[in-house]
Amino acid sequence: MTRLGIIGLSEGNGHPYSWSAICNGYDAREMEDCGFAAIPRYLEKRSWPRDRLPETVVTHVWTQDRDRAAHIAKAALIEQVVNQPEAMIGVIDGLLLARDDAENHARFAVPFLQAGIPVYVDKVPALSVAEFESLVSAQKRSGLLFSGTALHYARELTLDAASRQAIGPIRHIFGITPKSWDRYAVHVIEPAMLLLGDSGAAKSVRNWANGSARGLDVVFENGTQAHYAALGDVGAPISLRIIGEKDWRDLVFADSFSCFRSALSEFVTGIREGCSRSDLDFLRRVVGLVERGRA
Questions:
Q1: Is the pLDDT assigned to residue 158 strictly greater than 90?
Q2: Burial (CB count within 10 angstroms: exposed 0-12, middle 13-18, buried 19+), residue 184
Q3: Which helix (H) or strand (E) holds 176?
Q4: Is residue 90 left, alpha or beta, with left meaning phi > 0 and alpha meaning psi from -120 to 50?
Q5: How confident is residue 235, by pLDDT bands cut at 50, 70 and 90?
Q6: Contact 55, 4 (CB under 8 A)
Q7: Backbone φ and ψ of 282, nearest 5°
Q8: Can you give the pLDDT at residue 181?
Q9: Angle ∠(205,123,256) on CA atoms, nearest 5
């Protein structure tokens, strides 16, 4: 059994509830009061305990609000609420840093990385390449840091072989997400980079801002163009429009549970294999684009 601890909570981010439930199962009545209306709705559509992540349990939880931590524990069947995050060191096999305020990631992650404990850092790992390198260098050994958006594993944001053949070589990708650039741009940047593959370095980068919206336009060495926009407080879906030389496709994110479960499975597999399932060079490029969009 792989034992995990979880740290939360950042504003607007219900991952401590949902990620823990994926590992432990949940109390339906308590989960209704989690404050994130979508979570109990997608959990109730699953078959329990069949859909739990096997041989994995979240055993400890900490948040800056002990009452909230206690409620997470009740809703997601977590045994122990701790008074300090570091109390988990030595009793867990891995840490879920389920906060998406990247400016605070280092202060929570570094003590665990230095202690040799694998850490899953929620999107985005850092807001600058320099901060990302500090996380990497904090590892007691290589292979402890896992990070990125769970949408990296969203099947609905991928193209099957038939669609790739139908659209031909990709020339443009338009990635749209609601909410802030710092927290949500990664949700379209990572899936777009996976679709583009080896497009070479970014040879031209232009960022823009308009009210709460922020965006980044990139031209890669092979001529492919990517356009990323975080639109602030609007109701836009997380989506990609892929335009090829022969046709186009619209991809819309829809299944939170499946991509969360896949990401957690990758992290746990890395713990058991003694390595990270994250490609640090890939993450470095992602962080670099996020940083350029903030400039």
A1: yes
A2: buried
A3: strand 170-177
A4: left
A5: confident
A6: no
A7: -65, -45
A8: 97
A9: 115
* pLDDT attached to residue 195: 96
**Helix, strand, coil percentages in the chain from 3-state DSSP, rounded to 5:** 40, 25, 35
The radius of gyration of the chain's CA atoms, rounded to the nearest angstrom, is 19
CATH placement of domain 2-151+257-279: 3.40.50.720
Mean pLDDT of the chain: 97
The pLDDT of residue 199? 82
Cβ contact 262:191 at 8 Å? no
* Average pLDDT estimate for 87-98: 98
* pTM assigned to the model: 0.96
**What is the tens place of the pLDDT at every residue in 62-76?**
999 999 999 999 999
95-108 per-position pLDDT tens digit: 999 999 999 999 99
Distance (Å, whole) CA 277 – CA 295: 30
174, two tokens: 């338009």
pLDDT at 198: 84
Domains 2-151+257-279 and 155-254 share a fold: no
Instruction: Report the CATH superfamily, name and number, of domain 155-254.
Output: Dihydrodipicolinate Reductase; domain 2 (3.30.360.10)
Instruction: State the amino acid at position 125 in one-letter form.
Output: P
* Residue 230, number of CB atoms within 10 A of its CB: 29
Tell me whether the omega of the peptide bond preceding residue 49 falls within 30 degrees of 0, making it cis. yes
Per-domain residue ranges of the chain: 2-151+257-279, 155-254
Question: DSSP code of 184?
Answer: H
